[in-house]
Design goal:
Elements lengths: L12 H16 L4 H16 L5 H25 L6 E5 L2 E4 H25 L4 H10 L5 H12 L1 H17 L7 H29 L18 H23 L10
Antiparallel strand pairs: 1-2
Helix pairs in contact: 1-4, 1-9, 2-4, 2-9, 3-4, 5-6, 7-8
Pfam family, one: CbiQ
Subcellular location: Membrane
InterPro entries: ABC/ECF_trnsptr_transmembrane, ECF_transporter_component
Amino acid sequence: MTVALVDVTRANPVARMLAALLIAVALVFSVDWVSALTALVLETVVLLASGISLRRFLRRSLPVVIAAALTGLTILLYGQVSGEVHVQFLLITVSDGSIALAAATFLRVLAIGLPSILLFLDIDPTDLADGLAQILRLPARFVLGALAGFRLIGLLQEDWQYLGYARRARGVADTGRVRRGAGQAFALLVFAVRRGSKLATAMEARGFGAFPTRTWARESTLTASDVGLIVIGGAIGLTSIAVAVMTGNWSFIGAR
């Protein structure tokens, strides 16, 4: 099996989710920098070799890089003190231990966050719901309810805007910004609950939650390419652990 056989951009959403989950599970049990760096390098190679352009890769990676940098900076300034202390000011203490831990945390956030961001940004929620119900056998009632709720998120912004228009037209939104916001938020909550109740009743009447068998408009299956992506995710996680163990840098999180 080669990386060229796996097209990440067309993989089943369930395969993407399992691949990212395997990497995250492998990395979450250690805080060393070797396993994180190994996983990060392998992820970058696989993602760039699987149909994702460099420009798209860099654009999507930016939020994760910023989050990782902020996390690493926090650990650097306020992390556990050990070894030689280099800077100390009020609550800020920069030592050898905090530097090593900050570097490991920075790399680990990147290694865990990049696969999730790059694999999930363009997933169609309906395709994901089909995969969760048909491949992972999750309850259809739960999956379809979550999908319907996700589809309604976009309506909240419109409801908020229309509520503001209505309240201003009635002359009740001219003063008291905090009180106005609280009242409008409560009204939005009432609208959301009512809409959700009506939607649940309609879906139940149409048999969306039929158990134990129901039909699906689109069949969701795992292809050889999807299985290859899952295997690659597991291989990246195991390789990162093996490299850290062989180099003597493996540091189990429970031992710290």
